[in-house]
Amino acid sequence: KAMERDLRVAIQNNELEMYYQPLIETHGRAMQGVEALVRWNRPGFGMVPPGDFIPLAEETGLIIPLGDWILRTSCRQATEWPNLFVAVNLSPTQFKQQDLIGLVKQVLHDTGLTPNRLELEITEGVLLEQTAYSLMTLRGLQELGVRIAMDDFGTGYSSLSYLQMFAFDKIKLDQSFVQELGKSSGATSIVRTVLDLGRSLGMVTTAEGVETASQRDYLTQQGCNQMQGYLFSRPVPAAEIKNLLLRTY
Ligand code: G
Ligand code: G
Ligand code: MN
Ligand code: NA
């Protein structure tokens, strides 16, 4: 397929770029970290969203070199923002790749990023099979000093049992619940309950997809630790993060 060929070339030719979206600490309303989100400026096509090419990269195995590039680039760029952490998404194939722990260790060493400034985001789909192996991998990453976030929390099938089994450092409440706040009492209860649950398990809670001041205010009132969404900032190129650091939210 043409897209597969082009993606292969793109990884070699630097057509990919990392964008970063601020994560805001609720009380101080200051940027505490960023989520790294990959973009592909495909010649002749313009910006291709990751939802279109990450699945292709997963199917073709290109996710391994692509994921390596994403992790390295994100860690290197994060060293320019001394007080921020960087959160990098790991796809299922990346999570299961040979010696992921060795790769993360090597990238931290090569870039000089302190381990406690790296967060890895995984979805529960990653954990569905090979539970023993997944547990070992998660523990090994945490032993490096890296934090693990459960992404898109609430959208999968077995979220609660995974929370019991795996000691995540953070849960990221999926944006679908945040966007229903104030519209459906069910979603409002779910948000409150997930935040309580995260807190009682000693996990940091983050809400994604915050778009309105009333969503922000409800999440603040419910003790959500961090927020992310268009209300604060869209994902931006690396060069723009320094300007956003001076802003209040
Ligand atoms: O950036 P955007 O909101 O369009 O991302 C769409 C989807 O692509 C999300 O599910 C996101 O997790 C995924 N995605 C974005 N960037 C990366 C990345 O660097 N690595 C992986 N594995 N997935 C990513
Ligand atoms: O699946 P994951 O959570 O990794 O991906 C985050 C996705 O959510 C990215 O595609 C990002 O661009 C998108 N996103 C971030 N903030 C908002 C928001 O406020 N509203 C919406 N609709 N999408 C958002
Ligand atoms: Mn994510
Ligand atoms: Na998410």
Automatic annotation (TrEMBL):
<protein>
    <submittedName>
        <fullName>PAS domain S-box-containing protein/diguanylate cyclase (GGDEF) domain-containing protein</fullName>
    </submittedName>
</protein>
<feature type="domain" description="EAL">
    <location>
        <begin position="1"/>
        <end position="249"/>
    </location>
</feature>
